[in-house]
Amino acid sequence: MKPPTWLRGRLGVLLSLGPACAVETLPGVPALLLAPVGLWLLFAAPVLLLRGFTDKVVSTRSGSLLLAAGLAVLLDILVALGANTVLPPLGVERPLTRLVLASATTLVLLVLGTLAPQSPRPLLRGAPLSGARPVAWAAGAALLLSVAGPIRLNNGLGGAVSTTALVVVTALIVLLLLRHARCSPIVLEAGIYATSAALLLLTSLRGWYITGHDIQREYLYFRLTLGGGFWDISAYTDPYNACLSITLLPVSIFRLTGIEDIYVFKAVLPLLFALTPVLVHRAVRNVASPLVALLSAVFFMAFPTFFTDMPFLGRQAIAFLLLACAMLVLTDSRRPLPLRRAVFTVLLAGVVLSHYSTIYVIVGTLATAFAVDKAWRLASRPGRAHQHRATGQGRMRTFLTWWTVAVPAVLALLWAGPLTHTGGQLESTLRVVASDLFGSGDARGGSSDTRYSLFGGAAATPEERLAEYREDTIGYTRADRADGKYLPLEALAKYPTPVAGKENLPLTPVGRALDTVGLSVPALNGLLRQAAALLLQVLVLVGFVIALRGRSSPFTPVRDQITLTVGAIAMMGLFTLVPQLSVDYSVLRAFQQGLLFFAPFIAAGALWAVRRAGRRALPVLCVLVAGLLLDLTGAVPKALGGYPAQLALSNSGPAYDIYYPHAEDRRAAMWLNQRAAGDDLVVQTDRYSFSRLQTLFTVRTQDSVHPALLRSQSYVLLGSTPTRKDEVTVFFRGDLVTYRYPRDLLDTTRNLIYSNEGAVVYR
Fold first, then answer.
1. Residue 761: per-residue pLDDT
2. pLDDT digits (tens, 9 = 90+) for 226-255
3. 143 within 8 A of 194, measured Cβ to Cβ
4. Which residues, 6 or more positions from 104, have their beta carbon under 8 angstroms from its beta carbon?
5. Can you tell me the distance from the alpha carbon of 372 to that of 714, in angstroms, rounded to the nearest whole number?
6. How far apart are CA 9 and CA 29, in angstroms?
7. CA atoms of 740 and 472, how far apart (whole Å)
8. Arithmetic mean of pLDDT, 29-37
9. 202-206: average pLDDT
10. How open is the CA angle 495-498-502, to the nearest 5 degrees?
11. Which long-range contacts (CB under 8 A, 24 or more apart) does 485-494 make?
12. Distances in Å between the alpha carbon of 109 and those of 17, 118, 651?
């Protein structure tokens, strides 16, 4: 008698683990073999073995697979953390080697396969694939172009292919919207994943080295962990080092797959994060129509932070992936509530290990939601607040309870406090916030990103920000300047640093045609961006109001969705109104996180707005979504000109100037390392040259070359942008400010000792 199909499948997975582990431990295994074996051990095998458990937590086949994928990522982190914690006391000084990680992963998977419950459902057999062919063709074209476009740009060619990729991505989204009723769920979700991956890869694959902002520092701590073969928080008590999503997880991927380390960050982590919009779709689909669910995923991807910032935020990408899994568990009411609450809490514990700021915002959101739920219950049912009933679909019990809020909060405090001692940034932020709230601070505004908020008010001008920056630098160097460690202010007065003008793309023929009829293209581009930001906020409020009223609403939210949305909006308001919060944690990133809670309300608002179009409502909606996406991704400004170039589409623009790594900068840094080795002089360079080169520097370095911070004796390295354009960018109080750099000051006070026509070094 043959065993059941599900048992044969599990046996196959278990039997594959031994050979896979053997391949990992053999020397000289080619990368073409090592990569699939490592990916099998890290992701595919855990997903297949966890399906039996996740079937008990969520009710849908795709939901079970998606939750298993999130738990597999968390499992990889925990396996590496366990090996890193248990083995050193036993004499294994380097536990993060391929042999140890492969053996530990195999052992954990064997135990998991033995103890985990079985899934009676086949993996994909019998799944309907209606509407697959056109979606597959469009998805394949989008992914191919999203890889080819960055490669062409990295080789110095134009951005036409990347722009075409955005057009194809938009066409794929329109196709999914038009055919959502005829496409099966698995086809819709495959299309969403392809869209998500294409948008992320267009940005993440830019540059032949690590490109971006936070990712450069993330890569540094990954390299430190990798080089030592051991994660040691006491060696570098920095919040970045406490994010296991960018230390232990990438080390495991690199060791077991052999994928080049920079592409672990540039490709593997973005492709994992690309599951997040699919999870948004699946979570909303549990409580809403297919169209509302699809629109929720689309709006999550259409927000600019998704494709401009998230490819450079590996720690937050993994945190968002786990948070989206938690929302999937929360909205699926067809499984036992106690088990779902437990898994929800475990996933938030994974967020604690992945990213400090994300969990702080989540705790604030959950606490606000819990308080709103209690107040709502007391107001609606006096004397019966103990009964946990929800309004809305299914009359389900309220999901949030006191311990689902308290446990993540306690874990976050323990992790940042006694376990890693990396809570200094949180303490500093809270002190400044208290100072702002009680009027004892300097009363300066927050990040200018708040200008996109309905309640943000006026933003500081670049001139004001630069003046504040100069004032601060002069203030905290006053004592040392008196001792002669810095250049005297009298000498600096001859060398002003005016704000650099904004550099826009030249007008295209279409842009010039609009200009000839009196329409200012730069003003039009700015107006479209501002209108898009306001539109999303208005749709949140409209969707929330009509959902509460229950009239003409495309979906009926459960109580937890309402309270969590109130919590997310409250956190957004706090970030907008308290200056220091907008500086330390971007308002735009907070909105991206909030979309995990209130995206369905935006979808509901959009459907309500087009309802009067009748049968033409869906085409009108497609036009609205396509226009929004093409503008926010930069395709429209690229077609018109008159707007700063986007990194994903051009080899120019502000992001290219400060984030793109150049070979000349790297050569200068390696030369200077040799020259300054053993020298007592500090190396000064601008913030973003330092950010790009920090993994190469082994000498003492200061990341500022503003004239007010120039030391009397030091090396000064100017990277490609300061050398070629005489411009330097600083980041101050949440804003980027670019100013004209006085090269004459260096020519007068220093000797030029190195130049490679792209970077220079003075002494």
1. 92
2. 998 999 998 888 899 999 999 999 999 999
3. yes
4. 79, 80, 82, 83
5. 57
6. 27
7. 19
8. 90
9. 96
10. 145
11. 485/711, 485/712, 486/708, 486/709, 486/710, 486/711, 486/712, 487/707, 487/710, 487/711, 487/712, 487/749, 489/708, 491/749, 492/707, 492/708, 492/745
12. 8, 14, 45
| Helices 61-86/314-331 angle, 10° precision | 130
Hey, CA dihedral for 334, 338, 344, 350, is it positive or negative?
A: negative
Look at residues 523, 597, 529, 522 and name the one whose alpha carbon lies nearest to residue 564: 597
Beta bridge partners of 486: 711
Facing residues of 702 across strands?
684
The two structure tokens encoding residue 207: 């540059």
CA atoms of 485 and 191, how far apart (whole Å): 59
Angle in degrees, CA 420, 426, 429, rounded to 5:
155
Token pair listed for 321:
């992936």
Within 10 A of 524 (CB to CB), how many other CB atoms are there? 18
Non-local CB neighbours of 520 within 8 Å, separated by 6+ positions = 642
Q: For the chain, how far is it from start to end, CA to CA, in angstroms?
A: 82
Classified as helix, coil or strand, 36 is: helix
**Degrees (nearest 5) of the Cα angle 380, 381, 386?**
125
Name the token pair of 112: 């998991």
Q: Is the distance from CB of 670 to CB of 209 less than 8 angstroms?
A: no
Query: How far is residue 336's CA from residue 338's CA, in Å, rounded to a whole number?
Result: 6
752 pairs with which residues across the strands? 762
Rg of the chain over all Cα atoms, to the nearest angstrom = 27
What is the tally of helices (H) and strands (E) in the chain? 35, 7
Q: CA-CA distance, 392 to 553, in Å (whole number)?
A: 12
The amino acid occupying position 704 is S
Which one-letter DSSP state was computed for residue 381?
Answer: S
Question: Which DSSP category does 28 fall into?
Answer: T
Q: Give CA–CA dist 436/440, Å, rounded.
A: 6
CA of 485: how far to CAs of 104, 478, 488, 678, 762, in Å?
53, 10, 9, 20, 17
Residue 583 has pLDDT above 70, yes or no: no
Determine contact, residues 645/319, Cβ cutoff 8 Å.
no
Convert 616-649 into a string of H (helix), E (strand) and C (coil).
HHHHHHHHHHHHHHHHHCCHHHHHHCCCCCCCCC
What is the average per-residue pLDDT within 482-501?
84
- Helix/strand/coil for 25: helix
Q: Got the DSSP string for 331-371?
A: H-TTS-HHHHHHHHHHHHHHHHHH-HHHHHHHHHHHHHHHH
The structure tokens listed for 214 are: 């936070």
Structure confidence by residue, pLDDT tens digits, 632-662: 999 999 999 989 999 999 999 999 999 999 9
Write the CA distances from 711 to 15, 190, 413, 470, 706, integer angstroms: 64, 56, 39, 15, 10
- Reading the block at residue 356, the tokens are 């400090």
d(CA 248, CA 246): 6
Confidence tier at 80 by pLDDT (50, 70, 90): very high
Q: φ and ψ at 310, to 5 degrees?
A: -60, -30
Burial class (CB in 10 A: 0-12, 13-18, 19+), 482: exposed
Q: CA-based diameter of the chain, in Å?
A: 93
Beta bridge partners of 730: 737
Q: d(Cα 4, Cα 537) in Å, to the nearest integer?
A: 52
